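Exercise 3.2. Students should predict the tertiary structure of the chain below and write it as structure tokens, then compare their answer with the key that follows.

Predict this chain's 3D structure.
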Amino acid sequence: MEAIVNKLIWAVILQGLLLGSLFILSRKRSSTANKLLGFFLLAFVLEALTNVPLSDLGGYSTNGYFSLPEAKLLLPVLLLHYMLEKLGQTARYRHFLRAHYFMAFGFLTITLFNVLLFLFQGKDLHQAFDFHRIEAVFMIMQYYAFFLTIAAIVISIREMVKYRSLVKNAYSDLDLLQIRWLWTLILGIVPIVVFWGLELIRIAAGGRGMSSFVSLTWLLIIVFIYFISFKAYQIKDLLENAPLSPEKEEKEQTCAPRQGQNDYPDLGSELTSFMESSNIYLRHNLTLYDLSKAMEVSPRLISGCINQNLGNNFVEWVNGFRVEAAIAKLQDPAFDHLSVEGIGLESGFQSRSAMYAAFKKQTGYSPGHFRQ
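Answer key:
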């Protein structure tokens, strides 16, 4: 198996270089998130170099610790940064990311120092310094990178759950809920981390040499790069305009005097009447904060009323008006000149997928079912 894995590692190096460069240099899908994904793939390429079956390059040994760039600490930082960028939460973790980028690049420079030492003095770190101390530093980096990866996965999952709740209660565009790719990415990383953890446990128990856990880990990485990366490039940027956080948006609102749950029944009637009379739901990107400005009512009060008095969340409540408007148009001969998608746009839906998802949720049928 080890021989097969070694051959596949060469293949994944070339594939990672190609895909990483594609994400970083592409003009069609240019975004900070896609560039981060590209650098994430290139970090895998750097890490793969440490497993290339070459023991010597022009007299420079490639078998020792830090002889080749160690990118293990960079991988979780780029993963977390990518996830946060997609979810519009990078600013919240900027100090955490900055500190770990500094640490990751610090470990990468050890290899540069090793190369310079070899070029100018003809010896490497293992000859110039105590071997066991270098090994200790290397293993500390390994374990820290492992636990940082777990932390990155936990933070990513927490932010995805929070993001879904935010969109449901503050935004009316169902397309913003399409974050399956991010879940796929995380699920693709988890088995790699599991086998990596098993290998570290084996080493901590006194194991030496390369075990089958390492080979299995690299097989999973190869599958991850070939499958997940191709799939990622087929998906457009999920959040070209990331939403502001609820706290930041709400600070920009002018709140009315009403602040309690006792106002919910009357406010519920006002909200329904306002939506029907103003047709504000026809705005494709309508948010809770737009409605708050229009009615001069606290967004927290509106959200509480919709959730507790109207028994719904914001996105489903707004899309209920859009579905009703679309059904009326679908059944009206005056709109026969419009396609189903055209009627969806006329009714406030941002996209075809958002319209079909709302119809399935609200009626159990597709929009075409209602067309006369």
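Discussion points: The longest strand covers residues 56-57. The chain has two domains: 2-233, 246-370.
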